[in-house]
Amino acid sequence: MNNLRCLVIDDEPLAIDIIENYLARLENIEATRCENAIEALKLMRDASFDIIFLDIEMPLLTGLDFLKSLANPPAIIITTAYRDYAVEGFDFEVVDFLLKPISFARFMKGFERAVKTLKATGAGESSKKEDFLFLKVDKSHIKILVDDILFVESVKDYVRLKAKENEWISYQSLTAITEALPADKFLRIHRSFTIALNKVGRIKGNYVEIAGELIPISREQKAMAVKRIMNENAGLK
């Protein structure tokens, strides 16, 4: 199984700190935090997660309303101080219900249930996408090795795909080509850019540098993007 991508959603920073501390004791975990469900929905437009730790009582959008808005939710673990939500939570087929304050032992039981669920459904496994893709350019289809791709940029109705030795313009959406790339190696860091995480040469302010080009990182994506880039590029300065 690849690194598990976990999202912790809670309006109490201390509650997030506790879950993040528990996750930090485990191996092969990428944790992202959100202090409200609205922020989480924005984040999930461009990023996928394997496990979500979800509080219920939150301003703007409750955890249950957040769940109702998800078409294909990942493994969900509810974390709340209110026992009364247990029955309603399980109506959404959540993996587990953790009552605050959450001990590490109880956290691990829920986490293992989530991992078992992911294994049973095949989620979280290594990407089954091919190591190449065919890009339509004019009237031809060009075979491009995924490992050669540096980044993809949206330019109105087209995308510019930049590779190690060449670049191409193709009439398609950035969303479509991002979905064709392995999610553990590529990340959409801006509405106009998807990058190869292991091709980043430098992080500077709100930009990453790849092959001499500066690429912006959106404010919503920055924390997660920097963490995933650092994980993919050990020792990056």
Protein described:
The protein folds into two domains: 4-121, Rossmann fold; 132-232, Beta Barrel (OB fold (Dihydrolipoamide Acetyltransferase, E2P)). Helices cover 28% and strands 32% of the residues. The chain has seven helices and 15 strands. The strands form four sheets. The protein has a five-stranded parallel sheet. It has a five-stranded antiparallel sheet with strand order 10-9-8-12-11. Helix 4 links the parallel strand 4 (75-80) and strand 5.
List keywords for this structure.
OB fold (Dihydrolipoamide Acetyltransferase, E2P), 2 domains, five-stranded antiparallel beta sheet, Rossmann fold, alpha/beta, five-stranded parallel beta sheet, about 240 residues
User: How large, in whole angstroms, is the Cα Rg?
Assistant: 19 Å
**What is the number of helices?**
7
CATH class of the largest domain: Alpha Beta
Largest sheet: 5 strands, parallel
Class from secondary-structure proportions: alpha/beta
Instruction: Give the spatial strand order of the biggest sheet.
Output: 2-1-3-4-5
* Terminal residue distance: 28 Å
Question: Helix amount, in percent?
Answer: 25-40%
**Percentage of residues in strands:** 25-35%
So, the CATH homologous superfamily of the largest domain? Response regulator
Average pLDDT over all residues: 87
Overall 3D shape: elongated
How many structural domains can be distinguished in the coordinates? 2
CATH architecture of the largest domain: 3-Layer(aba) Sandwich
Total strands: the figure is 15
Which topology of the largest domain does CATH recognise? Rossmann fold
